[in-house]
């Protein structure tokens, strides 16, 4: 994997602590964070675990971490649980996992898949 593809995502993840509210910029930051986490977990899943379900694994871990982060905020008294933040994170996770699974990583060819086809051509 080329570092130029994931370099911008690493910069997003290396950013310092951010303080959020329910503005558009805040929700876009949750979308970007969810997407960045999903890309990372999808790539890790492709390398170490199930390649067939790598997108679902990346989405699931990223979205779960978003919900857990909101629950931790509520538990520590730093703020209430924000469903909008959790949903924005899940939206970003879905986009990041889908894009990574479909267009960044190589296709998965399952050994137990059986295909039959017919190739027909007609010359005019």
What do these coordinates show?
With 124 residues, the protein is mostly helical. 28% of the residues are buried. The N and C termini lie far apart (44 Å). It has a domain at 34-105. It is elongated. The protein has helices at residues 3-13, 24-48, 54-76, 83-104. α2 (24-48) packs across α4 (83-104). Helix content is 65%, strand content 0%. This is Lipoprotein. It comes from Aeromonas molluscorum 848.
**Biggest β-sheet: count, sense, barrel?**
none
Proportion of helical residues: 55-70%
Anisotropy-based shape? elongated
Cα gyration radius (Å): 19 Å
The assigned structural class equals mainly alpha
Q: Spans with pLDDT under 50 lasting ≥5 residues?
A: none
Number of separate strands: 0
Number of helical regions? 4
Proportion of residues in extended strands: under 5%
Assembly of the depicted chains? single chain
Distance between the termini: 44 Å
Order of secondary-structure elements: HHHH
Please state the average pLDDT score: 81
Signal peptide: 1-20
Protein name: Lipoprotein
Organism: Aeromonas molluscorum 848
Keywords: Signal
């Amino acid at each position: 994997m080329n570092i130029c593809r994931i370099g911008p995502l690493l910069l997003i993840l290396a950013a310092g602590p951010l303080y959020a509210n329910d503005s558009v910029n805040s929700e876009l930051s949750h979308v970007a964070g969810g997407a960045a986490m999903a890309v990372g977990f999808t790539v890790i899943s492709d390398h170490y675990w199930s390649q067939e379900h790598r997108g679902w694994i990346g989405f699931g871990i990223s979205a779960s971490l978003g919900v857990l982060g909101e629950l931790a905020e509520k538990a520590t008294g730093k703020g209430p649980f924000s469903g909008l933040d959790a949903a924005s994170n899940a939206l970003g996770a879905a986009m990041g996992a889908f894009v990574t699974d479909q267009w960044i990583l190589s296709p998965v060819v399952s050994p137990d898949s059986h295909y039959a086809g017919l190739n027909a051509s007609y010359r005019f």
